[in-house]
Amino acid sequence: MTKQASPKKLFSKPSNNSARDPLTAVKKPLKRYGCNNHHLETSSHSKALIFDSVSQNLSINPSQPVPTPDPAKNDHLIHVKTTALCARELDWPALYPVAIFAENPEKQITPGYDLAGTVMTAPPASPFHPGDEIFARTLPSRPGNYREYTISRTEEMALKPQKLSWVEAASVPLSAITAWQALFERAGVKGLNDPNTEGKKLARIAGLEVGAQVGSAKNDKFVRGLGASETVNHTTKSLKAWAEREGPVDIVFDNLGGKTLEDAWYCVKDGGTLISIVEPPEGRRPEDQKTKAVKNEFFIMKPNGQQLAEISKLLNEGQCEAVVDSIWDFEDYEGAFERLNGGHANQVVIKVME
Length: 354
Fold this sequence. Notes:
Elements: E1 32-35, E2 38-41, E3 45-52, E4 57-65, E5 75-85, H1 92-95, H2 97-100, E6 114-121, E7 133-137, E8 149-153, E9 157-159, H3 166-170, H4 173-186, H5 199-205, E10 211-214, H6 217-225, E11 230-233, H7 239-246, E12 249-254, H8 258-267, E13 268-276, E14 295-298, H9 305-317, E15 326-329, H10 333-341, E16 348-351
Parallel strand pairs: 10-11, 12-13, 13-14, 15-16
Antiparallel strand pairs: 1-2, 3-4, 5-6, 5-8, 5-16, 6-7, 7-9
């Protein structure tokens, strides 16, 4: 195995429901709404999912006021078609209240920070226009997108890939931008004129040989289909044991933390890079790895519309693909979060508007 490979998992669990969803836009009776000379129709109230951090309950508010975009902040009013959920996001308000409520004085907690939808209004200098189909990852410092209308900013957005359905588009931003930033910004991987892509295919397109940790034969087949040439089944062999046999690699990308991150130290070579999106790797460094010179980082992805636009190109070209675990109706939020919090699912997508 060429020593340009990451033995860590770079992508999501396999989907049991990855077929394209026939979600289509259906217009409803609307009211006139204007913003910066762009006038489309929308209702003054709409439904939204609200999380009460005190009672820890989720509920649907059927008459939530439509948010008002601020042109000075590059705000766009978006008619949401789909949103995707992130594991443990309901814990964020308690864990990081200063960050989560930085732009949310009313402390409205609405989950779902990935979205796909249609632009309703745009500020004057925006490259996006009413009617444009977009997808985005929005900052968690504002209410999320599990609601019929939301706010997204110019720097968060990109045009939706034409080849993707609304469901598929919402599944992309978090995982794709995270992988992009991990490989091309944190690990310094070169090989693309514009660093862009996601997961194992992202690395493969950049010219890397890719390894992945899996937990089943089905998952093995799935990640190999995404571009992995080497796999490690953690149910039969530890990463440490694999590294002792195969030797260390250049880059390890961790998205599990704990014991897996500890074992990852044995997989990265002296002078290599270890990146985690769960916790600081230094805190999991084994005693017998203290002398190894490894660039190690914990990071949290930042929404980036320009990177998402490059990812969109690759999706349209068929070089990458969206992965959807499951699809849920707006009212089925309990089942969606149960699926997400079970520990074996990512890319749980909600159909907000049909």
